[in-house]
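Friendly challenge for the regulars: who can give me the structure tokens for this chain first? No prize, just bragging rights.
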Amino acid sequence: MKILDQGTDITTSGSYSSSPNITNETSGSQFDINFTPSVQNLEWLESALNIVRQVNNRDVKANAINLLAVFKEIFTILKQAGYDITRFPPLRAIHLDDDSLLIEWVFTDIRIGFSFEIDPIKNSWYLVTNKKLEELSESGYLTNDNFKSVVLRIFDFVLKNS
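First reply, four minutes later:
Bragging rights claimed.
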């Protein structure tokens, strides 16, 4: 899927999974939930990753790590295409008492969130904006079938509106 008018292809690899093993389609290898994306030169990810490491539930942790890996992959592609990714705010994670997890990406005019629940069927996402961007509000469930398309649509919106 191309999300940039300039034609930069930021199609991602990998899969969204609630299982403890995640397939890395780039290398064809499998890695477990203890995998953590390298944070070298990716300070925007480090704070969220440190919180994700504290999650005990295997499904919540695996899904959150997969999200962070997709964000890292997209940012890497954007950086290689010459985009200034330093203008983006860091991802923030909140580990809740029931071992669920909220990951947010907050801009001046946009708030994006991903909620990872103990029951993966309840995983969800949201995007809201302020009056400057017409007070848009969109949300839905995250499933194996829509995970990548949701993340790519969100990046498309952010790139066009931030």
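Residues 58-80 form the longest helix (23 residues). The mean pLDDT is 79. Your move, everyone else.
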